[in-house]
Amino acid sequence: MHFQYGQWRDNLIKQNMKFEDILKLFNQLLLFTNGDVNEALHWLTELDKQYKIFSDEFGFDDFLQKLKDEGYVEEQQGGIPVLTPKGEKKIRQDSLDEIFSSLKKSPSGLHETDHTGKGVERLSETKPYQFGDPPSNIDFMTTISNAMKHSKDDDIDLREDDFEVYEAEHLTSCATVLAIDISHSMILYGEDRITPAKKVALALTELILTRYPKDSLDVITFGDDAKQIDLEDIPYIQVGPYHTNTKEGLRLSRQILRKRRNQNKQIFMITDGKPSCIWEEGQLYKNPYGLDRKIVNQTLNEAAQCKKDGVLISTFMITDDPYLTRFVETLTQTNKGRAFYASLNDLGQYIFVDYIRNRRKNLR
Fold it and tell me: Torsion angle, CA of 44/47/48/53, rounded to 10 degrees?
């Protein structure tokens, strides 16, 4: 096999970096900087020094100005740039596009199906009528239009194959809580685990808001304690000097889901460590070494209560720590839920495939 090399032309690389390309890179940097626009812009200039992202025709100042003109960034008092709601939505959309793009390329075939089913959620698309399709779903305008194509004069020759019906999705509503571990180990040992977790949370948020508006999604973080956060605050999640209070994360998730009236209820828990603390009589009892029987038993009791409430727990382990694996195996048996070991690159694929499958059937 022979290759013929030509002259390197740097201007071709510059031509490829349009505003949308740089914006996607900028949004990635925002996840790493916890939504700090100034820091992300600084990283962008550093990358430009090495890879020549900007060109003479479209420089850094042009990019920053267009961010403001397009409404992705605005300046607060003092000239500090911050994300706007439109900018936050763009990050969610980019995360969703990236994850679904990887799903379509998955060699294991884990991607959205092209088929739809019978149900009450009518879609705008139509299909030829088949025996068993409900008459209420007939698209009369398209049906008559089909008949007119072969009718003569003023007589409408309506045939069976003229009928078109609206497609419909077979859906059951689903309430999901995404519980994200923010203990210190999520950034230890030079491995960033929190950024992929945030990316999944952003993508899942955008999926539900745009595709499944009758579903609900709540997000919590758990470290020493657990806290519910607004969906708009996902880009700004930060890891702290915390232990892993898995029990409190499950308890708060279950409390949130108890208020939801959706037919299906589930918790997606992303974690990289075994439970290492619990609250006991107002004091934080912690043991970061091994599997503490007291901590484990109380956490498993919470998982059993989730099962009693009809809440399925899917745990996504992003390390292969043996203590974590042992604990999650026991938790999964207790809750009759699911457990996945996912690499940081595959985390989104696992969560989205599981979410889409779960919401199409009754989990009970």
Answer: -90
| Number of domains composing the chain | 3
Q: Measure the CA–CA gap between 184 and 350, rounded to whole angstroms.
A: 24
Report the amino acid identity of residue 268: F
Other Cβ atoms less than 10 A from the Cβ of 47: the count is 16
Structure tokens that stand for 72 in this block: 């992705």
Same domain, 205 and 345: yes
Of 63, 50, 71, 56, the closest CA to residue 22 belongs to 63
Residues 194 and 165 in one domain: no
Q: Is 37 in the same domain as 52?
A: yes
Q: Given CA atoms 265, 268, 274, 279 in this order, what sign does their dihedral have?
A: negative
**Which candidate, 215, 228, 188, 235, places its Cα nearest to that of 93?**
235
Answer yes or no: is 97 within a domain: no
| Same domain, yes or no: 139 and 216 | no
Contacts of 163 (CB under 8 A, 6+ apart): 128, 129, 138, 143, 146
> pLDDT tier at 4 (50, 70, 90 boundaries)?
low
> Would you tell me how many other CB atoms lie within 10 Å of the CB of residue 18?
9
Tell which phi-psi region holds residue 65, choosing left (phi > 0), alpha (psi between -120 and 50) or beta: alpha
Determine the Cα–Cα distance for residues 331 and 299; give it in Å rounded to an integer.
8
Q: Are residues 252 and 165 in the same domain?
A: no
Q: Please report, for the domain that includes residue 338, its CATH number.
A: 3.40.50.410
How much is the pLDDT for 169? Answer: 58
Q: pLDDT of 221-279, one tens digit each? A: 999 999 999 999 999 999 999 999 999 999 999 999 999 988 899 999 999 999 999 99
Q: Which domain holds residue 49?
A: 10-83
Question: What is the C-alpha to C-alpha distance for residues 32 and 55, in angstroms, rounded to an integer?
Answer: 25
Assess whether 163 and 231 both reside in one domain.
no
